[in-house]
Amino acid sequence: MIRLGRFIQSLALMVMKPDDLVEFGRQTYARGVGCWGSDDVLAEGLSPVETALLEKIPEKQGRLLLLGVGGGREAIPLARLGFEVTGVDFIPELVQQAKENAARHGVQIEGLVQEISELDMPAGSFDIVWLSRRMYSCVPTRGRRLEMLRRIHRALRPGGYFICTYLWQTQKMSSPIAELARKIFAFLTRGNLEYEPGDILWNSLEFVHAFSSEAELRSEFAAGGFAVCHLHIPASGEEGGAVLAPR
Ligand SMILES: C[S@@+](CC[C@H](N)C(=O)[O-])C[C@H]1O[C@@H](n2cnc3c(N)ncnc32)[C@H](O)[C@@H]1O
Questions:
Q1: Whether residue 166 has pLDDT greater than 80
Q2: CA of 176 to the centre of ligand 1 (A)
Q3: Comparing 203 with 148, which gets the higher pLDDT?
Q4: Which residues' Cβ are closer than 6 Å to ligand 1?
Q5: Spatial contact of 227 and 245, defined as CB atoms under 8 Å apart
Q6: Domains, the chain, ordered by start
Q7: Is the pLDDT of residue 242 over 90?
Q8: 196 C-alpha to ligand 1 centroid (Å)
């Protein structure tokens, strides 16, 4: 009965189309505005994975586009390091908070309200695009992630870099029968017809695609027009990272 209960819980992901999944995540973040701009989150600064990825690129300054800026946790230390930061988020209050928090911490950042899979930036306008806290995984469907990669590619100057982190999980996914049942449910409800194994509704809060194969990651990045300069596959799961360069 518990397995059946969990299976039924997982069906929530299947009734939502990709646009619904983005809106579902937006509503979650709109409810938690205060959390991302809190002093506790800001005090975390850059994570060890983020610092290690940053060390892989030669650029120590330049224009940096930070996708999913939240309250400015990464924006503030990156601006302190000397990058000219533009933060993007689909929650206007968070963009405002990030700018205010940055000013409070003695640095200035620009802010824009956009949905990252529909990113719209002038061509060749950034040296680095940054998407961390496993947010690469939060874009629903491979098709939408590829579209985002193409838009990031366009926003980068030649010789620029895209740094991102994603959710990595190697444990066994659900059984083939459960996968088939999910797909049938999506078909019957005209819901998430682009469902892929690894897609989950993380804590019933937002869409996440967990990657479990290096080949899948490499083929997705290549299809989006990027060469892999560095790939961090975590030994025990959770946050993986990549440094990519436009081809
Ligand atoms: C997990 S929080 C991380 C915030 C910040 N980067 C940090 O690490 O503290 C994700 C942030 O990305 C934003 N976000 C999530 N999905 C987005 C989307 N599709 N388009 C734009 N912003 C998005 C959320 O509003 C939230 O501020």
A1: yes
A2: 32
A3: 148
A4: 22, 25, 29, 36, 41, 68-70, 73-74, 89-91, 94, 115-117, 133, 135, 138
A5: yes
A6: 1-31+170-208 (no CATH), 45-168+210-246 (3.40.50.150)
A7: yes
A8: 22
In which region does residue 137 sit, left (phi positive, over 0), alpha (psi from -120 to 50) or beta (all else)? alpha
Look at strands 206-209 and 199-202 and give their pairing: antiparallel
The two structure tokens encoding residue 13: 């992901």
- φ and ψ at residue 145, rounded to 5 degrees: -65, -35
Token pair for residue 235?
Answer: 């030994």
Question: 65-106 pLDDT, tens per residue?
Answer: 999 999 999 999 999 999 999 999 999 999 999 999 999 999
Does pLDDT of 172 surpass 70?
A: no
In order, the DSSP letters of 190-224 are T--TT--TTEEEETTTEEEE-B--HHHHHHHHHHT
